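> @MW can you paste both from yesterday?
MW: sure, first one:
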Amino acid sequence: MSGSLKRAFGLWVASQVPGLHVHADDLANAKHSYPACTVTELSYSLSKMGCGRRDFTTRDEETGHVASSGKMVRADTTYRLTLKAASGPQGNGQEVVDAILEQLGKAVAEAGMAWEPLQLEDSEADPPAVFTADRISMEGRQSVPPDVSGEPFLFRGALTIKLARTIPLEKPVD
């Protein structure tokens, strides 16, 4: 099983806020554990870097001939984190959502200002996969009206976060 950037990002989000239940979609929260966060991929784009020529080559160990060449490309992935919380002993649901949004915004800002790239690890993959995010930035914070369709009433909010990575695209030389 290969690693998933979305799952690695979700695990990072869960590590930033103790007690936050992070899921890939609303159906995964079958136990209705709150506060909950749903990670949704909004967009993924690849763009060329450099002057258009190859950026690297790899050589065959036995012959020394060029075995493959490749380019480095920039991959931008935008995620929306939708938070939900019910009112309870911990406080009003909207206050809980606002506090978590503030905490996540601060974590993203700190990770974005760090000297080293952010290392996201998908520890649930076999073997664990590590993804390096060159840049992480908060694109915006959105208000979402409360969900009053059922019990408990859920207060909601959302953050949009962009991850920028540099990845190699390699092809064999004929």
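MW: second:
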Amino acid sequence: MKEFIEYIVKQLVDKPDEVRVTEVKGRNVTVYELHVGAGDMGKVIGKRGQTAFAIRKLLNAATAKKKGTSSILEILE
């Protein structure tokens, strides 16, 4: 899943080399910390948060198949 998030975000930003995803697994939840370069936050968030919402929706759909688990995406600059 980590590679999937990186792939999508690298297509959106101006500085794809600065995109980094850290995966922190808990008992029933996995937190993905998405780090983007300075100035690329707006491209990842999108107008009115639509791009970030779409990425989170894809992530939730992919993890929905695993019962009893959930995922959270944190976007950091």
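> thanks! The chain has a mean pLDDT of 91.
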